[in-house]
Amino acid sequence: MCGRFAFFLEIEPLVDDLAAVDLSDPALRARWNIAPTAPIYVVTESVEKGEDGERTGEIIRALRTARWGLLPPFAKDAAFSARTFNARRETLAEKPSFRGSLARYRAIIPISGYFEWQKDPLGGKTKQPHFISHPSGAPLYLAGLVSWWKVPGCHQGPAASSDGAWLLSATIITKEASGPLAAIHDRVPVMLTREKVDEYLDPAMDDKVEVQSWLLDDANSLTGEHLEIRPVGSAVGNTRSAGPELIDPVEPLF
């Protein structure tokens, strides 16, 4: 799974590399302990519409701000997102919360790295947190889904539309772990190479069965062999903890 991550990437190089326009909230930059329901950055690709509502044919790729935890149209309130911050790739086309976004509302979640907790192999209650990232500091591009949710009343948060009527929400897609990451946890986020980002976001792939087959193909995602797995301190378990010291390496507990 992926339930906590860090983002301290430089925005300008990120949007330049992705050939995206920056439509995100400028107040949200470096954060080292991002938890579900918090605002996060997502990259979407869509066909622009004209003033008459008709599609112009121009494809717009944008960095946006979304609430972490997908809100499908049938969600009664924003609290629903606390249950939908991750989505299993194996069941995307079946789950009502996610299948509506699979064909048309895909996104990439760029992160600096994510945290995962390893259970004590001897059965103790203590867990060892790890920070998992690219050793070069390059972004990790996580496959995700987004949904525009019609907000009751007017929403003023960073993930809201300019008129406050809609809220953009997102989920991170996960898969079964393999390689060295499997020793930490049995699930990992679906991580894409820069080249696969373009394939995944392409609006021309608009059949949900095709998209799920693409996600199930391990050739389209990273396995984790070349990532850095760093034991870190327990402070990250507290959502009120913040700061770059959360990713400092420590001696492992086991």
From TrEMBL:
User: What InterPro entries does the annotation carry?
Assistant: SRAP, SRAP-like
Q: What class of enzyme is it?
A: hydrolase
Q: Which SUPFAM superfamilies match?
A: BB1717-like
Protein EC: 3.4.-.-
The parts of the chain that form a coiled coil are none
Q: Record's superkingdom?
A: Bacteria
UniProt keywords (A-Z) are: Covalent protein-DNA linkage, DNA damage, DNA-binding, Hydrolase, Lyase, Protease
The UniProt family comment states: Belongs to the SOS response-associated peptidase family.
Q: What is this protein called?
A: Abasic site processing protein
Q: What is the lineage of its organism?
A: Bacteria, Bacillati, Actinomycetota, Actinomycetes, Micrococcales
